[in-house]
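Form P-L/3: holo structure prediction, ligand NAP.
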Amino acid sequence: MTPTTLQSYIAGRWQGQQAHQALHSALDNQLIYHTHAEKIDFDEALTYARKQGVPQLMALDFQKRAQRLKALALYLMERKEELYEISHLTGATRPDSWVDVEGGIGTLFAYASMGSRELPSSNVLHEGPAMALGKRGGFAGTHILVPRGGVAVHINAFNFPIWGMLEKFAPTFLAAMPCIVKPATATSYLTHATVKMMMDSGLVPEGSLQLVIGSTGDLLDRLGGFDAVTFTGSADTAAKLRANQNLIREAVPFTAEADSLNAAILAPDVTPDDEEFDLFVKEVAREMTGKAGQKCTAIRRVIVPEQYADAVGERLRARLSKIVVGNPKVEGVRMGALASMDQHRDVSARVEMLARGNEVLFSARDGFNPVGDNCGSGAFFSPTLILCRNGMVNDAVHDIEAFGPVSTMMTYRGIDEALALAARGKGSLVTTLVTKDPAIAAHAVPVAAASHGRVHILDRVSAVDSTGHGSPLPQLKHGGPGRAGGGEELGGIRAVKHFLQRAAVQGSPTMLAAVTGEYVRGAEVKESDVHPFRRWFEDLEIGHSLLTHRRTVSEADIVNFGGVSGDYFYMHFDEIAAKDTQFGKRIAHGYFVLSAAAGLFVSPAPGPVLANYGLDNLRFVAPVAIGDTIRARLTCKRKVDRNRTDEQGRGQGVVAWDVQVTNQNDELVASYDILTLVQKRGEAQ
Ligand code: NAP
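OUTPUT (holo model):
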């Protein structure tokens, strides 16, 4: 192919014409692209992000941004084959590319869905509940999270050019933070193709995404305290960037995901006859060879009981010898190439260091012969397994990361030594513990968790559905302490919160309700002749409230409720036993109080309330005894417009209602939120 010059997308323009650094195919080292030579004006890029990106993103709310992410994910998914085709040049097999292409797009889907379920239809996220700060009810406090108004710079490693970008872009986008993405140069052509597609979709608001091909120049020196930097790459580069004087001076948040020497531990209870033994071997082989070992989560250290080292070694050798390496387009190929010849040189040098004083159990010497045309010039590397019998005193095996299909097996005596070996990685992204014994898991996992961002427990039960040692999931935190960079990514909506600013807010409940967009107990309520359940979604206001009539609870209520529910618990039915309880007498069922409250506040005729789909935060605060008189206050607490329609095409929104049930002394006896779907007026007319 004729090499083209990749362009950066800065300030709304694709920029750069002159060829600069040559980029080669991992498969045959052919020249495929150039980076551009022109320097980027990062002042212009930042101004553009701040002046265009921030307002455009803020014009949408959390819910609308979530919808936009979903539309973008659908758009990319329809065009995924174009990305697979380019991904092939990085040396990736189809399953490797699946992780990058569809794993990346899947992350957009996941954030679209989590955003829609968990975030408000505004730009203020209330982290409640509000708490009273004084005795007279006039002063309260709470927390809110708001968009920072700054720009996120995302610097990525070469191994997942799409996933790496999208897993950072999705939470930032939800948080209304424009981003400037900088892929690793070696595989930047794949990120380039993805960003081009995203811009062509017309779904990415102006200024919210820019792409840097090549150097970041003085970009980091221009950032301020409301901006953020995220980094994925080597520990050395992380250390260098973290020390940037401007980032330190301006207190710019810097999140790093660095290389780590992840481990897999075969627990002492597993013998070579167990299914778990083979699961362990399979997982190690898969993690060594998937993406040719170029995964930040790959298993670098294989920790096995001393007595089983030979058995594990043999089975691993048998598996590795069956892995066909070569051009992934050739039928039967299971492992592709490293991303570049530079990587090849780097991995070779590190294997040499790792092998010093250790045995090499499997390597190119065991018959390495990549298949496919011109593979001789490609960046193919043999799976390599090293055995270290003195892991407690050998530093190199816990320190040197060969970013390829390379692992070191080490032996232990007793699970505590195994855990000590794992911890010698000084902080890793993930460890897998293979055991059949819950007691070993209960002992080992809390210890391993101190130095690992994720612990994957594998046995025959979990293996059926396990997503594997190496897969970070959008729902679960990715990132580890110490050497792994100390950062946190993903983990559901936590990742969005990382890019929002948390502020404590103090004031009267009415003020807090106005600021948070949520009713806060003690705030003024709005009462009228219209029952809140008879208002359309658009007409409902936070604070619309109903104080119901009263109802005296009788013994007949308790008896009837026992009959209906079948709940004859002594506290409701046994006068003598009830005398000995903390209440000293029979009390009504809590669920009766809940049901009776519904009877007090519902407006029974058909109306805008379409469904009641649950309740949150239920507490039975005080007992209700025979003869007590209860009433309920129902207040519109929170409205979320998810821009949804039901099957009949009726527009609807989610409304949470605060319910307080009180007794004749105005004491709170039950407290909860009920969750409803409320129809919109627009579609009803
Ligand atoms: P790298 O050399 O550290 O580069 C990472 C990124 O930093 C690249 O985009 C690189 O750009 C950029 N960079 C380097 N120097 C820079 C500077 N002075 N200013 C601004 N940006 C700079 O790592 P890599 O070789 O791409 O990736 C492999 C490493 O990443 C492995 O060690 C692996 O373990 C680690 N990794 C970690 C994770 C994780 O989640 N923890 C994930 C993937 C990879 P250029 O390419 O243009 O130099």
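COMMENT: The chain has three domains: 38-258, 266-480, 525-683.
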